[in-house]
Amino acid sequence: MKQAVRLGLQGLAIMAGLVAVLFLTFAAFGQDPVFGVRTIFLGAFGDAQGISRTLVRATPLLLAGLGVVVAWRAGMYNIGGEGQYVLGGIGGAMIAKLLGGAAPAALGPMILICGVLFGASVAALAAWLQVKRGVQVVVSTILMNFLALELMEYLLRGPLQERKKQLFVTDTLPNEAMLMRFGAQTDLHFGIVIALISAIGVAIYLYLTKAGLQLRIVGDNPSAARANKIPADAVQIRAMAISGGLCGLAGAVDYAGLTGRLADGFSQNWGFIAIPVALMGALNPIATIFSATYFGALFAGSEELKRTLPIGNTVVPLVQGVVVLAYIGFVTWMSRRKPVVGAEE
């Protein structure tokens, strides 16, 4: 009960901080903060279409943000969420191409599974390169982002190109193979449910299982992990595999729930934006639900904002930068508060 109350209070505190960031952003640019925040709120939650736009954008952000949470809590700074997201879409498109004649009801789940496997495999490879070969995961995952984008470009002009060979896109998924939508006039699909279930699953894994405890110990204190004979290398590889799987699932969910096909514009930078989403959620899976919804609302509300204010297109990048800088400042402040061993002697 106390844990639930603490998480709830943390979520409310984060939401209050997020609103404060918005107010400060508008004020810094000489804009009316009340008008700006009100416009974003109405654009994101003012009607059913606004809520749908918010949740559709929050879905991949939540899944990829959870991937960042798992990896970073293990001390593995996965910057490759965007590439893993793209590979998740590629995996879904490849299985759809190979099994185009399969029953649509069976094809949908297989698309999601392949998306998870594609994302997990490349993230696990990056982890293996660090723990076995000393290649920093930050460097390898950044490079893998570019490789994933180049791979998609090649596949859209070759093996996965649509049948008529006229456009650089894949064949469109049949409606029966796509995720269920919650109405004929909305893009909101079952992916939001998958994302919420994933958040609960990650929270249970991190805080209620032995494997999750080991992961947090490895990330917080590698020396303590070694002293307790925790296999840190295996834990970090597993954490990266889970992280990549969640990012890959984000791509597969967008492919099967929203776009129905791959194209050059499939990459929407969700994997990159997932980093400030996770940081704003304090690397807590439940709090990440709030931060993903917040960023989803920012994207949905900014569409309305850019019609009325000159800074409408810049609000989201500005908030991302503020979040990352705030996180760096917080970590630095906390590290300085830690007592130095032997300082009192």
- How many individual β-strands? 0
Order of helices and strands: HHHHHHHHHHHHH
Percentage of residues assigned to helices: over 70%
| Cα distance spanning the termini | 41 Å
Give the helix tally.
13
- Class from secondary-structure proportions: mainly alpha
Radius of gyration: 21 Å
Shape: globular
Structure commentary:
This protein has a domain at 64-281. It is 73% helix and 0% strand. The protein contains 13 helices and no strands. The chain has helices at residues 2-28, 33-45, 48-73, 81-98, 104-133, 137-156, 191-208, 210-220, 222-227, 232-259, 270-280, 285-305, 315-337. α4 crosses α10, α7 (191-208) packs across α8 (210-220) and α11 crosses α12. It is globular, with a radius of gyration of 21 Å.
